[in-house]
YrzI family small protein (Neobacillus rhizosphaerae), 46 residues
Amino acid sequence: MTLNIFFFSITFKKREVSLQEAAQQEVVEKLYQQNRDRQISMHHLM
């Protein structure tokens, strides 16, 4: 009889976001919101 046991650990580290990355993410979110609002308004017109 063989018993194989594997131990492993997973660690998560919070990634530091630079100021430039945060600004880029904000622009992306704003554009996404605008496009979503445009799609919703076009759907209501039909």
